[in-house]
Amino acid sequence: MKRIMVIGVSAGVGKSTFAKRLGEKLQIQVHHLDTFYWKPNWIEASRDEFVQAQEQIVDADEWIIEGNYTDTFQVRVDKADMLIYLELPLYVCLYRVLKRRIMYHGKTRSDMTEGCPEKIDWAFIKFILTTYYPRRSKMAERFRSYDKKVIVLKNRKEIKAFLEEGVLQWRLES
């Protein structure tokens, strides 16, 4: 079975892009949690709706689920075979969030619910700045408690190598 969680230290770390590329390599459908959490016009789904959407996915034999949403982490991690964690530097994450805002001005990204055009505000930047380091510590601690394969990728070179060589190696091992 191939059930993979793609998570990251922060917004802008590259979870969506990585998951799309991984899905193409493995020929596995990718599910972006943002599309289940956000309804059009940036309205949040209820916790029950959000959990139910994930529960409908995790029983399948193969999936890639991308996104953090630590409040519902257990729904996914219990069924996952592997976690891939992206931990690029804070300045890279901030740069990418700003770049994404410029590139998708007035548009909705493919990994987001239609009707949620790209936006950025001080609250979102503050969220990134205040959660980056605590999340980095929590994730390392959390991984020690899981009986799962965890792959940590900390830079573009490691990400590229995993997508080019690591995927093939993992296929041979499974």
UniProtKB/TrEMBL annotation:
Domain of life of the native organism: Bacteria
NCBIfam families listed in its UniProt record: PRK08118.1
This protein's name: DNA topology modulation protein
